[in-house]
Prior knowledge:
With 337 residues, the chain is α/β, with parallel strands linked by helices. It is 30% helix and 25% strand. It has helices at 44-52, 119-123, 126-139, 161-173, 185-193, 206-212, 227-237, 272-276, 282-296, 313-325, and strands at residues 2-6, 19-22, 32-42, 61-62, 67-74, 86-89, 102-106, 110-112, 152-156, 177-181, 198-200, 218-223, 238-246, 264-267, 304-307, 331-335. Helix 7 links the parallel strand 12 and strand 13 (238-246). Helix 3 (126-139) crosses helix 4 and helix 3 (126-139) crosses helix 9. Belongs to the zinc-containing alcohol dehydrogenase family. Quinone oxidoreductase subfamily. InterPro entries: ADH-like_N, ADH_Zn_typ-1, ER, GroES-like_sf, NAD(P)-bd_dom_sf, Quin_OxRdtase/zeta-crystal_CS, Zinc-ADH_QOR/CCCR.
Amino acid sequence: MKAIAYYQSLPIEDPAALQDIELPAPEPGPRDLLVEVRAISVNPVDTKVRRNVQPENGTAKVLGWDVAGVVKAVGREVSLFQPGDKVYYAGSIARAGANSELHVVDERIVGHMPRSLGFAEAAALPLTAITAWELLFERLRIAEGKADLGQSLLIVGAAGGVGSILTQLASQLTGLKVIGTASRAETQQWVRDRGADHVINHRQPLAEALRAEGIAQVTHVASLTETDQHLDQLVEALAPQGKLALIDDPKQLDVVKLKRKSLSLHWEFMYTRSLFETADMLEQHKLLNRVAELIDAGTLKTTLGEHFGTINAHNLRRAHQLLESGAAKGKIVLEGF
């Protein structure tokens, strides 16, 4: 089968950073689906792994953790899917990635694809939807429902992949006042279009920008990027007993700064369930099915930002380069081999 992989960690400008190769087709395990990959999207985790994880013993490492495709075969213990089903999922970082024609994945972290979307639009959703959903409803414990409980959510990096779907979930499914951050006119409009009540520039002091919008403090923060750089401003912006959730990898984080206001810290990593095969792995299957229903009902929209064409090494290097520049809007998707 065709695949895109790397043999050593290299700058993305190097043609060998990602290469077109051929690999044997994988075999599904007892609870696995064998999926014919139709479309993929690219995430910051792809670039982080490529830069920092050297393949062992000169083997090829395949990246890619966002898929939309068709079930080709199922393992002997599979009960949730059958061949021919259209599916979407984010896979597991403990297994081979999905930048390949065929891919195997545990059925418990797979959802039925939204009926109203094509493969490219669906591939933009799984990783970010799971991250945003778990952050909002499981880590921050926000209640579903439109009742105004006087709560507010500041989303730092609201124009990115996770921010684009988190803004929609918070504005459509909760009573939160939603404030998104974006630094360019184009991305600020993108955030407004996804339902934010206010948009501020994270290149300016956040607490000052909030006050300029008439917002003294917020009860919740979702920090999706540069948390270590923004920490002092986030602590200032948060109300006493507020909650701070993050998904990025700060080099250092002085949590003592949270003490005076009794702020709580919540980390979201959507691969925890698949990495440790937790007893509640099936929650991600249920979550993705719920997101598909919300998409088909018109409540949520795909976060596809740019379509980079065919799934090959050249186009994936372009996608990695754009992500590493920090200028991406929404999700970058590739489709077909």
